[in-house]
From TrEMBL:
Gene encoding the protein: ubiG
GO-annotated molecular function: 3-demethylubiquinol 3-O-methyltransferase activity; polyprenyldihydroxybenzoate methyltransferase activity
Limits of the Methyltransferase type domain: 65-159
CDD domains registered for this protein in UniProt: AdoMet_MTases
Keywords for this protein: Methyltransferase, S-adenosyl-L-methionine, Transferase, Ubiquinone, Ubiquinone biosynthesis
NCBIfam families found in the cross-reference section: UbiG
First and last residue of the signal peptide: none
A GO BP annotation: methylation
Protein name from the UniProt record: Ubiquinone biosynthesis O-methyltransferase
SUPFAM superfamilies tied to this protein: S-adenosyl-L-methionine-dependent methyltransferases
Domain of life the protein comes from: Bacteria
InterPro entries: Methyltransf_11 (IPR013216), SAM-dependent_MTases_sf (IPR029063), UbiG_MeTrfase (IPR010233)
Amino acid sequence: MRQRIAQDIYDRINNGIYDSEREQWWEPGSALYLIKGSLNPARLGFVKRVLERELRWSLPGRSALEVGCGGGILTEEIARLGFRTAGVDPAEHSLRIAEEHATQNGLAISYRKGSGEALPYPDASFDALFCCDVLEHVRDLPRVVAEISRVLRPGGVFFYDTINRSWASKLIAINLAQRWKRWAFLPEDLHVWEMFIKPTEMKALLALNGLVWREHRGLRPNASPLTVLRCLRQRARGELDFAELGRRLSLVECGATGLMYLGYAVKG
C-alpha cells in the first residue's frame, strides 16, 4: 500500500514553481502552458466519453471541483463542459492568475486556497472531482484520496491522471524532460521519480476509500520518438515556444500505462 512520502524525498521536489511570480500559466513562453495544448485535449476527450457513454450524465446543475487547479487551465475547460465549477490550490500566485483569467473570460468559477490533504469543503459537496497532474506532487497521497472521497457525493465520479513509477518514466519524465539539457523542457526536480504512482497503488487507495475503480488508459505523444526529440531540440534552441510544442506533441490515449495514465472511479 502506498504510504506518505518520506521527508527527505519530498524536500527534493520543486513545488515552488507554482507560487513563482515568473510563472504566468497562460503565457505561451511558460512550460505550464503545455497543459493547454498537450495534456488537456486527451483529458477532455476521456472525460467526455465517460460522462456521455459510461455515466450518461446530464451536466446542468451538477458541481465539480478541481483539486490542485493551479492557474485554472483545466478548471476553465471543466466549467465549459457545463459544471458549476470550483478550484482549490495552495499557491496564492496561481490562484490570482486563475481568478483574473476566469473573470476576463466571463466564467463564474469559485476559487479557494487550500490543500488536497485538508480540502476546505463539507462532506459530499461535489458530483465530480478532478485531480490531474497533481497526485505525484503531494506528500500524503493516502490523505488526499481520503479527502477527495469525503467531499464527493455518493455516485459521484473522480477523474485523475498521473505518472507511473517505471523505467519508462525515469527515462522520459525525469532524464529527458528535466535533466538532459539538449532536450529538457521542464525545471529540474519539478517531478521526483520516487513520488510517481503505480496503477496498482492507485487502485488500492481508491478501494480503501470507497471509490470503485473503473478504468485506466495510457497517454503517449502523438508523434514518433524521432519527431519528439527533434521538437524538443528546436524548443531548447528557442525555435518553438511551448504553445507550438504542445500542438506538435499533443498526447493521445493508448493501451500502455507504463509512462502516464488517466483514469476514473465512482463513489459507492
